[in-house]
Amino acid sequence: MTDSGTALTQRATLDEIVARCPDYPAERRHLYRQQGCWQDETFGAMLRRLAAEHGERVALVDGELRLGYRALDARVDALARGLRNTGIARGDRVVIQLPNCHEFVIACFALFRLGALPIFALPAHRRFEIEHFCRVASARALLIADRHGGFDYRAMARAIQQQLPTLEQVIVCGEAEELTPFASLYDETAEPLDDVPQAQDLAFFQLSGGTTGVPKLIPRRHDDYRYSLVESVRACNVTPDTVYLVALPISHNFPMSSPGFLGVLLGGGRLVLAPRPSPDECFALIERERVTMTALVPPLAMLWLDSAPHAGADLSSLDILQVGGAKLVSEAARRVAPTLGCRLQQVFGMAEGLVNYTGLDDPIELINTTQGRPMSPYDEVRVVDDDDRPVPIGGVGHLITRGPYTIPGYFIAPGEDDAGDNAHNRRAFTAEGFYRTGDRVQLTPDGYLIVEGRDKDQINRGGEKVAAEEVENQLLAHEAVHDAAVVAMPDDYLGERVCAFVLTRGAVPKPAELARFLRARGLADYKVPERFEFLDAFPQTGVGKISKKALRQTLREQWFTAPEEDN
Ligand code: OOB
Q1: Fewest CB atoms within 10 Å of the CB: 7, 185, 205, 351?
Q2: Residues 377 and 356: beta-carbon distance below 8 Å
Q3: Rounded distance from Cα 455 to ligand 1 centre (Å)
Q4: What is the ipTM of this complex?
């Protein structure tokens, strides 16, 4: 693939990677330490401490496997040694693409302990995305499942390895064939493992929902991410009695840290891993394990609400249902407490940092109608107009934010800054270091945020983010596509789905042929447009750009006719 950046034949050194990850300015680093946000504990050290504190208490349940804190810590050491034996060392990048399984949690901490840097891909990603991550970060290893959801990850990995000489290892959970079996790596010797990384070091990369042609990597450090866990544990009241069901894909920021699996471990609670988020499987686990808390995206929450009354499962242990990732309409929010017999917590977060929660004991109307407030007293949030001037309280504007766990910049991929240019970061952050979230919000007088819309060129497909430009670029590679504009179409269930407007040259291709083409290029399924519209010309804005507003309007007319801003 030529469109995903420079081909690297040599693996970047840690220093080269660090140089591509913008750091917080010295005065803010100092401030966040002084304020007690950053507490100088790495994730490797954190798990060691938790093992000493909680010993045999169960940390993790995966099917029939129950691992105590101490046993988890020991497995992490054994895997870290094994990974080290294969040559994986401090600073090496390792793309992890696993479904919800105990191996994910073990691998994650083993890499943290080595100071290697996981890149957290989603199980839904395909060759295009995974190759891109491996390429831009010059990853040494890729960790996959053998098969999951009917997809053979080994075949994908082989194809990627052929393209990328820097990708030395493919490690497989399950049947590895000629690749490296995960289970063979555990090294039970007592070889010491020093906790090499420091708390101010890079810890891993999350993925951005993105607005650009290729997905962006989000560098996170031990210090800032750990602080986001501390605040989440507080806001979500995680205690050793918490039993948290990981229903969403575990590598996403929401089930990872809000409070997610990392926050629940930090709070001494118990994790129950669900292989899939379906009501059938999850309700059975809630009943069996007496789950107290879980996190869902709105479409799944609605599915659970529809299923619960007929399911006959005992959900009485469930105390908190968190919903986030996309806007939960207030009508659905109102159904949560009566239908599931639990409290709702709305979560408005982003992999780049800022997380907002409604309070567990907030007035019910506030919980049902807002997306919460920033979890840290040190979060700086501003609602601004197009010229970055503050909008009066109660008005709607662009949300920009800065704080102790919001990144100061994206990873600058090789090829992006060849001209000393860092154009994307300059667009995505203000001169003062505020991240432009791309969300349009209203700030209420009591400091709560209501998400009113979006000004980023992205589709939020029930919590899954699709960058329009990425899909447009892929479509343009088809010989019959002259131009393409990808927009959101409203949908009752997912909130939005992906729709592509296409100008063709020559014969108009069948929609199914275009969808097949995109899948064959290795694009994740959730990004493939579910509707194609063929036009002779695009509607234009005053300055001659494609008017996505007009395109969306065409689609929305079937729904409602609210006016919207152009972009
Ligand atoms: C979470 O993270 P991302 O990085 O997948 O997506 C962030 C974007 C936000 O900028 C916003 O556009 C949208 O997703 N979003 C919401 C929302 N939560 C996220 N829009 C409306 N209402 C909400 N409650 O999605 C994420 C990360 C951590 C915790 C929760 C969600």
Answers
A1: 7
A2: no
A3: 14
A4: 1.00
